[in-house]
């Protein structure tokens, strides 16, 4: 086996820096995406709770249970 040349060694050294930067960028994007999904989930729960609270007629048993569950979830966080 022949050892790598000077240019090949330099190219390989530069490639790892690029890969590390790409990994850091991906992790940053992934954390932002997770925060975005959590916020969307919270907003959908809030809109569902808002629609349950806005109903004029009395709620069914399952709707009342869902309302209580949503209130507990939103205010416990």
Task: Give short descriptive properties of this protein.
mainly alpha; 77 residues; 0% strand
Give a brief description.
This protein is mainly α and 77 residues long. It has 2 helices and no strands. It has helices at residues 6-54, 61-76.
Give a structural overview.
The protein is mainly α and 77 residues long. It has one domain (6-76). It contains 2 helices and no strands. Helix 1 (6-54) crosses helix 2. The chain is rod-shaped, with a radius of gyration of 26 Å.
What percentage of residues falls in helices of 4 or more residues?
over 70%
Largest sheet: none
What is the radius of gyration computed over CA atoms, rounded to a whole number of angstroms?
Answer: 26 Å
Q: State the distance separating the first and last CA atoms.
A: 60 Å
Beta percentage is under 5%
pLDDT below 50 for ≥5 consecutive residues: which ranges? none
> What's the total count of β strands?
0
**Helix-strand category:** mainly alpha
Separate helix tally:
2
Q: SSE order, as H and E?
A: HH
Number of domains: 1
**Overall mean pLDDT:** 87
Broad shape: rod-shaped
């Amino acid at each position: 086996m022949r050892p790598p040349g000077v240019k090949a060694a330099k190219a390989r050294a530069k490639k790892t820096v690029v890969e590390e930067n790409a990994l850091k960028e991906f992790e940053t994007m992934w954390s932002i995406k997770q925060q975005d999904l959590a916020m969307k989930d919270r907003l959908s729960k809030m809109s569902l709770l808002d629609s349950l609270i806005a109903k004029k007629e009395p709620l069914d048993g399952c709707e009342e249970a869902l309302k209580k569950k949503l209130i507990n979830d939103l205010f416990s966080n």
